[in-house]
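Look over this today:
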Amino acid sequence: MALSDIRDVAYQLALEPSDYDVHGTYRAKVRLAALANAPSRRARYILVTAITPTPAGEGKTVTSIGLAMGLNKIGRVATANIRQSSVGPTLGFKGGGAGGGAARIEPLDEALLGLGSDLFAVEEAHNMLAALVDDANHRGAVRFDPTRIGWRRVIDVDDRVLRSVIVGLGGKINGPARGTGFDITAASEVMAILAFARDLPDLRARLGRIVVGFDMGGRPVTAEMLKAPGAMTALMRDALQPNLMQTSEGTPAFVHAGPFGNVGPGVSSVVADRIALARADYVVTEAGFGADLGGEKFLDLKCAASGEIPDAVVLVATVRGIKSHAARFAISGSKPLPREIELEDMTALTEGMPNLIRHIENVRRYGLPVVVAINRFPTDATTERKAIREASLDAGASFVAEHSAFADGGEGCIELAETVEAACTPQIASFHPLFEYGSSAESKIETLATRVYGAREVAWDTEARAELERFVAAGYGHLPICMAKTHLSFAHDPSLKGAPSDYEFPIKGVRLAAGAGYLLALAGDIMTMPGLPADPRAAHIDVNEDGDIVGLS
């Protein structure tokens, strides 16, 4: 199908030419003025999340895009609001997050390789603040506690050797030497602020609240104190404008803000959602990894930032994903799934079903209807899909539907589209967050560990508890929690499959993200900077004689 001119895509949403700036033929930046010009909300708001995935993923983005196209097929105006791809995994093992097959964002290469300057604006703003921190430390403008400078640097490349570094070597002229490190850009607090900011003043205010460290008196040092947020906002001004693109069938798609649900919020932007909610019948958005990660953060963090509550939650499940939670399969993060997982195996499916059931139960705790979307693969047996349907309904899912968006695009998602519409009509949601925001940070962590992840108790690293107590003493104990943990298990350990219980959930670190509005708790051996696999995707990407990029999909 030929791509539509982006102006024709904008027309579907009643966006005026004055509401956006065209960047080439197939992408536009939607101006924030479109918020002021928008009518009042009329869209249904759909969150797409998933079971605990295999390392290859279970097609959550494909489902989000396919559902939006399916809704358009049945005569509804719908948008797919997805996260921007990080260049790191695009060139690493997992690949980009722009869908695939007949359900993807177009142009795909543009979607996967940074979308102009958005990711680089986040990187530049973040690292400029890091430079100001070290300059203030060098000049003595701030009497930093050298053990409590918390602002690391970022880069959008999987690079394990940058996880821990020493800066300031070479004598006094280069500043005090100190240990620090790099995170991947998607894990930056600036990226989370981009996702949560409601408008430009809110972006500026959040950037000013960033805490970069503490002084010798234990007082927080903010970006505002270093006179950084003005320049940071200038660097981020255009990045705050959502990218309007299209799906493989010309359905409008907003592609904006950060991707990593295991080390950050993992949600697309509040701004993009607000613009779309006023101009569509349905806004389909996604959250990173499983419902225990991005889904939980969407419901407990993003909803608080935006004030918008989803009308229904779509939980993506696959036959292979459920079977991967049976103990019999050896699954590695850097190798293809074993061929045996594609064979009909009702015993393995039954053994893995507790993972699906717990995810359904967790989402239902929020008072929202759950639609289980079975993403069909050609190797699935009819008996296996039937068993998933029955188990889902028994666990409390409101509806179950199958789809084949990867192979058939919007046509393969008509059943899912009709089912989602049924879940929203009449309105049967009665939303309530998982925990009270006035509760202590420690109790919030315990609630996540025991009620969502199934742990018996939290095991605190001594320094992690001490750091949390210092944040509480500084006045940040009321903030909600953003958990950083593996996406391959409910637990902290990726080898604990299914629905593990009666185990200790270890907290090994706590970081403060005051601008984004949360405390980041690090569970187990989670890394905020990935490493490359033995055979990275970068080795298979090239530019052919016609100038086309090949090897991305």
